[in-house]
Amino acid sequence: MSWRFISLPPQDGYHMVTSFVATADYVTKGGKNTLMVFYAKGPFVNVGVNQEVWLEVDLDFTRKMGIPVVRRDLGGGTVVITPGEHDYFVVIREEDAPRDSGSLYKKYLTPVVDVLREYGLDAQLREQDIVVNGKKISGNGAMTHGKSVVIAGNILLSLDIELMSKSIKVPSEKFRDKMAKNMAEWLTSMERELGKVPSRDEINKKLKVTYENELGATFEESSLTPDEIETWDKLAEEKKAEEWIFYKDNRHPDLRTERCVKISSSVALCHVDYKSRKMLRITAKFTHDELDEVSISGDFFVMNPPDFLDRLEDYLKGTKVKDITTKIREIFTNSKPVLFGFNADDLIHAFDEILSKPEVIEVTSP
User: Fold this and answer.
1) Where in the chain is the domain with CATH 3.30.930.10?
2) Class of CATH domain 2-241
3) Which of 24, 106, 189, 226 is least enclosed by beta carbons within 10 angstroms?
4) What is the CATH code for 252-364?
5) Distance CA 115, CA 338 (A)
6) pTM for the predicted model, two decimal places
7) Could you say which DSSP state residue 131 is in?
8) Of all residues in the chain, what percent are helix, strand and coil, respectively (each to 5)?
């Protein structure tokens, strides 16, 4: 079995987040499994598909600095992408992907772990991330597209903690300082670990060899097809549209609060951040004893069906408070979503937390 190995020149943020879509179309139509490597021309803020920009990004800072905000098709959290990382995309046929996410990541990220170990680093796969001495050096995510599966990730070559911390929305400058300190404690890079940054060509060669050895396949150096390039450019242009970037924000324009507040005797707005395996951010509007509207966002991954989050929000709209748990279990049972980061029980617990808030109790109680 042979794969394509494609090394591309540096790209802008909009091309960075859409390259794998064009290639996933190619693979879906019967093309070869593909490993692509490249990196960013300049910094940009990369927001997960399931996140709301206003909750995650310091838009005043990014606009002032001319740093684009780019919303990707993959889940996960908001990250600041800089030329200091080396990105890879593994695009495979659906039948070559293990069903459960843990096995998927293990199979296709072990070669990256092996490359880092070749540099003498004690790299370990921890769920979908790769850590060295407990610090993350590689973040990864996965999604389905057509009849293909995409694993996207990076190797941190160097870090710009100041830029990263200033681009992320925080409640106060004191919190920002703490966040920067925390980033320095839980992130690392090849430069920090080795005292130097290996060349990208060297890393690419090692990636190619380790993937060949791990998968028992031949990786042929190749290039994108004309159709892929045409699709890629078109998709990158579409990603510049504010309708896409702020899709989650615009879906619930009236649910903009980071606390719980009683609007009137019959209406309450409430926001909670609930930590499951990933972060669940829920903002809900209650009118009398009904869940009038809800926004569910966070750094989790929805692999299948891709529109499950929208379906979930729509399904819960108008639900009586006493029936929320039942409705959540119904849609999870009927849709059988493939998620990474939370499950039905986590969502139920998050709603229990919201419903326990005094502002919500006052509105929803008989």
Assistant:
1) 2-241
2) alpha beta
3) 226
4) 3.30.390.50
5) 29
6) 0.81
7) E
8) 40, 30, 30
Dist CA 36 CA 9 (whole Å): 11
Can you tell me whether residue 14 is helix, strand or coil? helix
CA–CA dist 102, 114 (Å, integer): 17
CA dihedral sign of residues 187, 83, 306, 317: positive
Q: Please give the Cα distance from 347 to 361 (Å, whole number).
A: 19
**Nearest Cα to Cα of residue 108 among 86, 93, 118, 119:** 93
CA distance 300 to 163: 24
User: In whole angstroms, how large is the CA radius of gyration of the chain?
Assistant: 21
DSSP-assigned states of every residue in 2-41: EEEEEE---B-HHHHTTHHHHHHHHHHTTPPPEEEEE-BS
How far, in Å, CA of 151 to CA of 141, rounded?
Answer: 6
CATH 3.30.390.50 range(s) for the chain read: 252-364
Question: Residue 261 carries which side chain, given as an amino acid letter?
Answer: V
